[in-house]
Amino acid sequence: MTSVITGDIIKSRKAHSEDLWLKPLKSALSKVSDNASFYDIYRGDSFQLESHAIEDSFRTAVYIKAFLKSVKGLDVRMSIGIGTKNYHGDSVSESNGEAFIFSGETFETLKKDKQNLKLKTSNATINKEINLYFRLALIAMDNWTVNSAEIVKLSLEHPNMIQAELAKIIGISQDAVSKRQKRAYLDEILDLDTLYREKIAGL
Questions:
Q1: pLDDT tens-digit readout, 138-185
Q2: Which is it for strands 117-120 and 76-83: parallel, antiparallel or unpaired?
Q3: What is the mean pLDDT of the chain?
Q4: CB 86 within 8 Å of CB 98
Q5: Can you list the positions of beta strands (E) in the chain?
Q6: Percent of the chain at pLDDT above 70?
Q7: pTM of the prediction?
Q8: The Cα angle at residue 190 between residues 135 and 185, in degrees rounded to 5
Q9: The 76-83 sheet, strands edge to edge
Q10: Cα dihedral sign for 187, 180, 152, 124?
């Protein structure tokens, strides 16, 4: 079993420079995978990432979204496919299997469904339940400000740090960190991550 995240930058063609999203996208992918053969960037604004730790796939998607939304004007849509892997190529785009097909097929539905994060597994019940949770979570995530996205990114990078320690990193008060985390609905998103892990463990 493996997980595959397929995504692209929203409204990238309206940006004045490709560097606006390409550098943050490369940085985000390199942060979540220490092996460059497990991710690809293609057509400039699209990407694919494989992660064998299937239970981490939602948290990884949240991190990528937070990383990109911490840059003013950027956002991302992503699909998560979880399933088998039949062929291991030299790069993620050359590999194949159930997870890759699920991710690719689901990605093609995102624009039509106007949903920026969706999951597909072989279990239709889990898909229906999790995708409802995703729709609710996206009410917050799609509306993150740069500050909200930055604090989510930082909180995921340093999960064991207390608010006062996070505050020192970005030069704001502990109270400001607390308010930004609340505005980002970070606690609720982390609760969803816990639930997601429990559901995925049953696949």
A1: 999 999 999 999 999 999 999 999 999 999 999 999 999 999 999 999
A2: parallel
A3: 92
A4: yes
A5: 2-9, 39-42, 46-51, 76-83, 117-120
A6: 95
A7: 0.94
A8: 65
A9: 39-42, 46-51, 2-9, 76-83, 117-120
A10: positive
